[in-house]
UniProtKB/TrEMBL annotation:
One of its GO terms (cellular component) is mitochondrion. Residues 9-151 form the MmgE/PrpD N-terminal domain. GO terms for biological process: defense response. GO terms for molecular function: aconitate decarboxylase activity. PANTHER family: 2-METHYLCITRATE DEHYDRATASE-RELATED (PTHR16943), CIS-ACONITATE DECARBOXYLASE (PTHR16943:SF11). Gene3D superfamilies: 2-methylcitrate dehydratase PrpD. The lineage of its organism: Eukaryota, Metazoa, Chordata, Craniata, Vertebrata. InterPro entries: MmgE/PrpD_sf, MmgE/PrpD_sf_1, MmgE_PrpD, MmgE_PrpD_N. This is IRG1 decarboxylase. Belongs to the PrpD family. It comes from Climacteris rufus (rufous treecreeper).
């Protein structure tokens, strides 16, 4: 009898996900979540906090780069692009949410897009790959929330 750890089982499930798991309904909902998150993120680029992190992050500008939403004048390494774009999304607090309380797309989409943009031209990520990565990120976040004792009490605390 082989006992599998929760972490090992979790990693096995996540590693086993592929584009065949994306049903038409999941694809349509994902596209809607992505569009909503981009819209909220673009609106968020006008907030004071987003201006501050954008100005701060300019010192990290480099050739290996990803887009800063709403800015054509400079690009940042994927880590900082994901940070700035994530701040833009969260600064409005209109992005999608689920129970236990979290904003799944605002944490996942900026990272996925920044990484996808950083791939070399000959290894560009397809739209389906991006949708899969987005959904894997959402799945990871949902499972981690499910495992979190602290998250279970959020509705009682507010």
């Amino acid at each position: 009898f082989h006992s599998q750890t929760i972490t090992g089982n979790f990693a096995k499930v996540i590693h086993g996900l592929n584009a065949n798991h994306l049903t038409d309904q999941v694809i349509q909902r994902s596209k809607r979540m992505i569009l909503d998150t981009l819209g909220v993120g673009l609106l968020g680029t006008s907030t004071e906090v987003c201006h501050k992190v954008t100005q701060y992050s300019k010192i990290y500008s480099s050739d290996l780069s990803s887009t800063i939403w709403g800015h054509l004048d400079f690009r940042l390494p994927p880590l900082y692009a994901a940070f700035v774009n994530g701040v833009a999304v969260h600064s409005m607090d209109f992005d999608d949410t689920w129970h236990p309380a979290t904003h799944p797309s605002g944490a996942v989409l900026p990272a996925v897009v920044a990484l996808a943009e950083a791939f070399p031209q000959k290894k560009k990520v397809s739209g389906l790959d991006l949708l899969l990565a987005f959904n894997v990120g959402i799945e990871v976040q949902g499972r981690l929330l499910h495992f979190s004792r602290e998250a279970r009490n959020i509705p009682k605390r507010y």
